[in-house]
Amino acid sequence: METLVACLSGFLVATSIWLMLSGNLMRFLFGLLLLSNGVNLAILAAGRLTPGAPPLLGAKGALPPDTMANALPQALLLTAIVIGFGLFAFALALTIRAYRTFGHLEVDRMRIAEPAEERE
Amino acid sequence: MNSLILSVGARFLTALFLLFSLFVLLRGHNSPGGGFIGGLIGAAGFVLYSFAAGVEAARQALRVDPRAIGVWGMAIAVLSGLASALASLDPFTGLWLILADLALSTVLVFDIGVYLAVFGAILTLVFALEETL
Amino acid sequence: MSWVLALPIMIPFVTAVLAFLLRRSRMGDLASVGGSVASLVAAVVLIAEVLDQGVIAGQIGGWQAPFGITLVADHLSAAMVLITAIIGLSVAVWSLAEIGPTSARFGYHALFQSLLGGVTGAFLTGDLFNLYVWFEVLLISSFGLLVIGGRKSAIDGAVKYVTLNLIATVLFLAGAGLLYGATGTLNMADLRGAVAASPDQGLMTLIAMMLMVAFGMKAAVFPLFFWLPASYHTPHYAVSAVFAGLLTKVGVYALLRVFTLIFVGDLGYTHEILLWVSLLTMLTGVLGAAAQSDFRKILSFHIISQIGYMVLGLALMTPLAVMGAVFYLLHHIIVKTNLFLIAGVSQRLTGSSDLYAIGGLYRTAPLLAALFIIPAFSLAGFPPLSGFWAKFVIVRASLDLGEWLVAGVALLVGLLTIFSMTKIWAEAFWKAHPDGRQPALADLPRSARWQMMVPIIALAVMTVVIGAFPSAFLEFATKGAEQLLDPAAYVAAVLGEARR
């Protein structure tokens, strides 16, 4: 199972790199989204996919009968997803703003902050 | 969006979402759930309403600026962490007050803060994005 | 104990909340300054405690390490927290003169304070995943600060800053996740033992390289620095001053922490790479600066070249070299922030930051010229200013190892730094203004004059004091380096004596 998830994660990362190499900001963003999902999957796989009961205590603190699943990778993931969501939302808003400002999304043509050399 | 079904349904669904979000917020202490997921569900209710009736109507229904809700949520969360100073414990240590069968705690206060922070932050983002489109 | 550690992080966030709620009135500005004063007090208490007791550690929520979130302060962390508070207060005061009501209503002060909170958190945390969270907190605040002016060039700079930093973030997350998968812990003190005991050292080096790329991107080392000169000259001057002082240094701090505490198993590989990276960083930064003609762009490229010195100290990994890196880190934050603040005043007086379009400041604003000399020559490494000692220690450490090439590059870069500084001096201060303008400090409104000049003078005085009485500071840095190179005290403070 881990192998499968690892392969899927690798596939996502490969796809994302292809997308991110594009000069278009929108494609780059989609690549970034795929990349963070790929990494999230990698963390899940690195934490080992164990079948087990949810790590919750029963009434009066009774332990569940089976082995409990490791909750930490999922907690890490949840945090990472939330943060990734926030950052992605900001990046999306920035992209819209950039499109309004420049009229295009080609990063190679965004030269306002770093104009090409013209002075002798 | 001009859909009669959505705009009629959204009014009821939004109320249902908010109620369920409170339920999830409160049951989180013994079962899966909590402030974060509750905040998401509550925000989803208002997002649905904003799809159906427009951002302007959703803002009016909310009455308060979502940014202010988020900031107050952060304030509540931080203050609940400060409370343990009174009992001279480590920061963010949970303090419990057991009244008969009802267990109240600073952990719950922290969760309410998280609920509001998530609720406010998500709505700020979604409203801002919808308005730019 | 934990409260001493937690308050420097909590105060900025409480201040951020206050500043946001009061953002429509002048009270918001005052809340920001007041909160910065409170942070400074908390930082002083923390450093006093650290000087008194050595490394101190505390747990959040009473959960024991390595399971809970740990906060740790050794000499380096405590000093970084203090410097952050000093910079925070200086820039908060300086902002009063630059940040208008429009930016304040947008939440400038709240973002600024949460940036400081994130930076402080990153310096104090003892948990790798928590470090990631603090990186994100400061990153998202910095995004907000970057676009707050709303100018075209700021959007342009922000696009590059945001995209490249997001990649670094994802790499950091991947490294932390894989490290957890391989060792089962994320507590940095616990990781030291766990990484050393791991049967698969190759995997550890791989993860170390992922983290090196992630932190290196934050620290703006060669060849990962392109976002910095693309964005640092675009926002408000107050924003670029605090960015220049603190943000890249968080990356350097993370490198220092991780590559002295956790990944020390394969020094011949990891630190050799750091050595070459540092040399190329110094050279490309300073050469990039030589080609620029904009006040802030020159300073931005110099951040990069100076980062090279700090990484060099880490790469050499001798007690003297690491001490040099610590000292460099502390001195550089003060100097760099001050230079950006001076650039801000110069822009306000002369109306531009293009060096060919300004001038005349020496004649009409001699105080500003004198104040520019101090950090500029300190940056270049003139005795007896603070930068001289920093460079002296690093060069000395490389000579001790017989690394003649390294020492030569370090000295050459110092020389080229003087070239850039004299260029700014000649263009902005010495020559007459091309339009015949007579920019004088008296042109500023009275309140703005005070708000801008007092922080600059205070920071310049600090530079002079560090340079004139270096022994106390060098001794402090020596102690910090000892703790970094022999983390037994750090590990013991976090995990308790038994598991040392």
TrEMBL record, chain A:
Membrane disposition: Multi-pass membrane protein
Protein name listed in UniProt: Na+/H+ antiporter subunit C
Entry-linked Gene3D superfamilies: 1.10.287.3510
Family: Belongs to the CPA3 antiporters (TC 2.A.63) subunit C family.
Transmembrane segments: 75-96
Statement: the UniProt record of this protein carries the keyword Cell division: no
Main location: membrane
Superkingdom as given in the UniProt entry: Bacteria
Database matches in NCBIfam families: PRK12658.1 (NF009301)
Entries under InterPro entries matching the protein: CPA3_antiporter_subunitC, NUOK/Mnh_C1-like
Keywords tagged on the record: Cell membrane, Membrane, Transmembrane, Transmembrane helix
Localization per Swiss-Prot or TrEMBL: Cell membrane
Keyword Cell membrane found: yes
Source organism per UniProt: Paracoccus fontiphilus
Automatic annotation (TrEMBL), chain B:
Domain Na+/H+ antiporter MnhB subunit-related protein span(s) in chain numbering: 5-124
Protein name: MnhB domain-containing protein
Presence of keyword Transcription: no
InterPro entries according to UniProt: CPA3_antiporter_subunitB, MnhB
Bilayer-spanning residue ranges: 12-29, 35-57, 69-89, 95-128
Family listed: Belongs to the CPA3 antiporters (TC 2.A.63) subunit B family.
Keywords for this protein: Cell membrane, Membrane, Transmembrane, Transmembrane helix
Membrane topology: Multi-pass membrane protein
Superkingdom field: Bacteria
Pfam families from the UniProt entry: MnhB (PF04039)
